[in-house]
Structure formats: structure tokens, C-alpha cells
């Protein structure tokens, strides 16, 4: 923080912005909103903002660029960002990849990045909603919220789910601290040490870490281009009698595959016959067409738990997700949430509700899908030029699952590219089997056209 006596609104504003910069919320190189925009959002004069910007400039935290505005200085390093030299003898495991994704390293090309570029999400303009949230819910900002979460947001999500033809009342929806807390609540409720849980293979790697912490026996269901392999699913159901199957029907991470309607129906038949609960993770819903098949739509939440998130379409920093299921189970899971976290953040939930209930949000998601479509096309072209084998060619996806010629082990490829400032997400990380060797990597389409990737491959060749 800036060390000085705080005796004006400008000082307070400068301190607040300095804290955001030092904590990495405003990363190096980020453009600040204009003086006029800050003044309108804060309800103060332009002179107040100018003085705050002058304080930050004098302390080297921001810098003006003629004709472009103010930017966070590139030499600024977040106070909580620990310098970690990536070494080749360090295991490239789940925690390693998560740490890499949470660090801001402008000099590194992170093709394994899990999020869209910041500039894709900036048009949501989070700063515009702060005053509205404070004016309408100031009393609630000083106490815990409902165990279910902010009711108007649950009502907005009821409408969102209706767009997927999923009928859910607000009493069937529990707001969470992101999709990851939703998964954690389900695991705490259902899983005991030694229980078998089925997952997509390859699949969502943070889930594997959560299941390992719970002592679960994790069994992978191979992922085909049209969804889970049904024969293997049948074998595992007969052999292990699992309680849960975590799967992703739309835009599956990392393979970019969608579950076909025929497979979704068959999965539900098997689930009913074997008393299996399907946990459907739809965290990428806003990036994909509404018309794609979702298991929860076919099942109407009778034996399905549907999990959603806005990390990829609004902001990961808000940390708002949700789960939807039958009302009795929703009440139990809300109790789990209350016991483990008391409540989720009503301030964040009010902010998200203000965003998604605004007519601008639909335009934003449409623009987001258009950007994704262009980036996917460019990424496919880039991989094709390199002779890559793309597991599933699609019109739009946050990720592509692909292997490069000459590299049977993507872990070794990732280790070689680290030396040249390129980070990959090797396929072994996405398998529940720690000894799995994979030629595939998960590539974020937004960064694949960067010339540094081809240059790094040439260097190691």
C-alpha cells in the first residue's frame, strides 16, 4: 500500500487502486478505465480521479500513454506473487498447472491457460455495477447471506436454465463459491474413503485432486468424440458399483467434445439401473450453443446434479457458481455449504445478478462466442500447419485436444518448451491415472496463433 496519511477521497481512491495492483487484480500492462468512467462509477469529480492517478503515477504504479490512457506499470509485481523458477525436475502435476494458471507472466506464452483473455471479458464492465449493488443492498453487505444464496440471482438462474429446457425452481438451486465449491460440496456429501467415483478420461484435472483428498477410488471412463465410452461405462458400473459419475456433456474440457443425444439417453438408462448419480459440469455453457444436448435436460434433475459457472464468461474473480438438483438434495447440499463455508458472498452474487439480468449480457455472450469462433478457426489452422492431430475439430471451443508429430510423450515436450518460455498442459495431467503417458496436450485457442509457439518448436527440433 502507499504509505501516507489518508486525508482525501483522492487518497482513498489511490490506496484502493494500489491494493488491487499489488494483489494482482490489476495485472501489469492492464489498461485502466478512463478518468471520466472512473468519476461516473465512483460518483465523484474528475479532479478527484486525476489527483488519484497522479498519486499512483508518482509512486510508479501506473503510467500514462499519450492518446491511450493510463496503464498499470509493467515492472509492478503483485505483492503476493512469489517468484518461482520453473525447473525441469519439478513434477508437472495438478497443483503445478493450477499455480501456473494463477500467475501473471507476460513474458511467458501459456498455451495451457484455462481462461479466455482478459480483453474478451472487459466489456462486461464490472465497475459499472458496484454503485448499483451498494445502493440496493447495503444492509446485506454486512452479514451472512442465505444458505441457498441470493434469491433474485437464483430466480435469474431459473430463467437461464429454462433456456436449456431445464425446469428448476429457486429451491432447487444453490449458489456456490464457483463451480469448484459445488463439486467439493457434492463430494463431501456422497463420498467416503474407498468409494469409487467415475470421471471422464481425459477430464477436469482439479476434480481429480478433490477426489484424491476425499480418499476416493477414481476410475476413468474413456472419452470418445461423441461422449463417454458406453461399453467401458457399463463395465465399470458392474465392477465397482460407483455412487457418482462426473461428466461434461457440452464443450468437454479438455477434448472439446459434446455428448450425443443417443449416448446421453443411454447414460441415463444405465444410471437409473445402477442407482448412479450423474454430476454434469456445464461451466462452459455460455461459450457453446444452447441447443446442444445436456443430460440434465433429458433427466429434468431427477437423478442429475447440474453445475454451472460464470468464470469463463464474466469473471473468475467474482467466484460465483451454482448447482441445481431435486429440492430435497438441494436442501441437504445447502446444509453442507453452511457447515463448511457458512455462506457464499452475497455481494458477488448481487453483482452477478445485476450483470446477467441486464440485456447487455446476452449481447456480450454472443460477442464472446463470435470471438471464440474466430480464435478456434485460427487455432485449427495453426495446428494444421504444424502437422498436429486434432482429436475433435469443432467450430468453437475454449480448448483443442491435439498431439504434435514426433512427440509420443507430451510431458517431455512440455519440459522442453518450458526452456523457451512456452507452457503446455500435457495430457497426462488430465487423466486420473498418474502413470498415464499421452501424446496429447490441451491448447487454449486464444493463444495458439502466437508465433512464439512455432518458434519454440523449431528451437527444440
UniProtKB/TrEMBL annotation:
Domain HTH gntR-type per the UniProt entry, residue ranges: 7-75
Leader sequence residues: none
Keyword field contains Transcription: yes
CDD domains: AAT_like, WHTH_GntR
Gene Ontology MF terms in the entry: transaminase activity
InterPro entries in alphabetical order: Aminotransferase_I/II_large, HTH_trans_reg/aminotransferase, PyrdxlP-dep_Trfase, PyrdxlP-dep_Trfase_major, PyrdxlP-dep_Trfase_small, Tscrpt_reg_HTH_GntR, WH-like_DNA-bd_sf, WH_DNA-bd_sf
Keywords from the named record: Aminotransferase, DNA-binding, Pyridoxal phosphate, Transcription, Transcription regulation, Transferase
Family assignment from sequence similarity: In the C-terminal section; belongs to the class-I pyridoxal-phosphate-dependent aminotransferase family.
PANTHER family: HTH-TYPE TRANSCRIPTIONAL REGULATORY PROTEIN GABR, TRANSCRIPTIONAL REGULATORY PROTEIN
The protein, known as: PLP-dependent aminotransferase family protein
Lineage: Bacteria, Pseudomonadati, Pseudomonadota, Betaproteobacteria, Burkholderiales
